[in-house]
Amino acid sequence: MKIWLARVLVLLVLVSNLIASASFLLDPEAYMGGFELSGVPGRVATMGVGLLFLMWQVPYLFALIHPIKNWISLIEATLMQAIGLA
User: Fold this and answer.
1) Rounded to an integer, what distance in angstroms lies between the CA atom of residue 9 and that of residue 24?
2) Backbone angles phi, psi at 37, to 5 degrees
3) What's CA 75's distance to the chain center, in Å?
4) For residue range 31-65, what is the model confidence (pLDDT) as tens digits?
5) pTM score, whole prediction
6) How far apart are CA 33 and CA 43, in angstroms?
């Protein structure tokens, strides 16, 4: 039961982060103003943030597969979320 609870929680975070990543990659213009960026360099920089969101999901995938066996990935994912929350 604990494994499935951990999987569900990791999956919720993973999906929300993948949605954020897709948003930055597919529509960077919507977020450029928040970074006070413009033009092609601003578009590319904002898309880079989306790529970072995507790269940061690797520990979540391993934690989702088996939270107990891949407990280090689960701890990494938890720490990453705590840092983001702080």
Assistant:
1) 23
2) -115, 160
3) 15
4) 999 999 999 999 999 999 999 999 999 999 999 99
5) 0.82
6) 10
Contact 74, 63 (CB under 8 A): yes
Kindly tell me if the per-residue pLDDT of 12 is higher than 90: yes
- Output the six-digit token pair for 76: 């990494």
Q: Are 67 and 10 in contact (CB under 8 A)?
A: yes
Phi/psi of residue 74, nearest 5 degrees: -65, -40
Tokens found for residue 67: 């939270």
Q: Whose structure tokens read 């705590």?
A: 82
For 3-37, give the DSSP string: HHHHHHHHHHHHHHHHHHHHHHHH-THHHHGGGT-
Which residue, among 10, 78, 17, has the nearest Cα to 50 in the 3D structure?
A: 17
Which amino acid is residue 77, in one-letter code? A
